[in-house]
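Section 3.1: Structural characterization of target chains.
Under the original work plan, the team committed to producing a structural model for every single-chain target entering the pipeline before any wet-lab resources were allocated. The record below documents one such target. The sequence was received from the expression subgroup and is listed exactly as submitted; it comprises 407 residues.
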Amino acid sequence: MTSRATDPRNLARMTGILTARPVPARSKAFDLLLAGGMCMVLGLLGIAQEGFAGVLGFGMLVPLVWRRTHPELVFFGVSAVATLQWLVGARLMPANVGLLVALYTISVYGAVRYSRIALGVGGLGVLMATSRYWSNSDWRQQVTMMVALGALVFGVWAFGERRRTSRLYVAQLEERAAQLERDRDREAKLAVSNERTRIAREIHDVVAHGLSIMIVQADGGLYAADQSPEQAKKALATIGDTGRASLTEMRKMLGLLKQDEQLDLDPNQPRPQPGVSSLPELIDNVRDTGLTVDYQVTGEPRDLPALLGLTAYRIVQEGLTNTLKHAGPGARTSVRLDFGREMLTVAVTDDGRGGGVAPTSDPGHGLVGMRQRASISGGTVSAGPKAGGGYEVIAKLPYHLPTGGQQ
């Protein structure tokens, strides 16, 4: 089975990435010094050894200046000069080391197919050199030189291939790290977006509930202004208290929205959010509007995770808000919390006229928000008219997310 590191398509893609990278100035300076030093030493030795033919040695050394930027052209150019040396009958020179340097370079920096071709050219060069420079030797010596030169050529090429593999491995690690960083940034942006959506939903719940209570109190105070001034004052006081509380909570939410880059996305960080323990206060506020609310808790109460407690609180708040809007005067409401073995059941029911109102007639997002909240906690919400009149909202919220569930 082909691994990712040895997959030819992935190898070619990664080689292309490495080839496309700019050559650092330090590497260019090193190549310039290398080629210059070899010309000063090996090139001059070739001229001293072969005279005019030694000039060919510079043709195998000078191109090394561009060995990293154009590895294929350098290798085949140097090979062409070496072939010309063979054709004119010039002896082997110290400058022939440039062939090995060019072979190493193409195996490290060149395209994979050209590296294979370069190995074949090197093998052909071994045969040509043996046939020319050791033609008068004993066959044993010819075989020995052929094996030695072949091993040298193959060893240089294999060392270059190993360097290529190491560079590809490092490049893959860098690419993977860059991809992980991009994924992390994308997840962070998504988390910020989700957090802003959650805060916007909180604002909706706070404003809708507060305004519903204020409207009911204002209507009641208007009717009671002449007959019962004390009731009217009490209604006005409730309106003021509700408005101030809602405004304070909304300002907190808006303050979080303004902190675009400083949103605390740690789910374990405690937040000053209401929970099940805050329901009696919420229900008392609703009772002050004149709505009859029966609150019952069954089962053995337990400590709930902050998110689950907030979800239960908001579902009750939204259910009571809908009752204030649609149930009509004289309606009775029941809020029941059932702490079961596996889940918490929250039920908000009323016996008002809201059962005849189609849920889709309300353009708000209350029911949608309740279902979204419940789904985040792995639960469900059902809402609709009751048999015999009235309306009910039932939420089933498991204490723990199921294995493999949504996190």
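Confidence is low (pLDDT under 50) at residues 1-6, 260-271, 355-364, 403-407.
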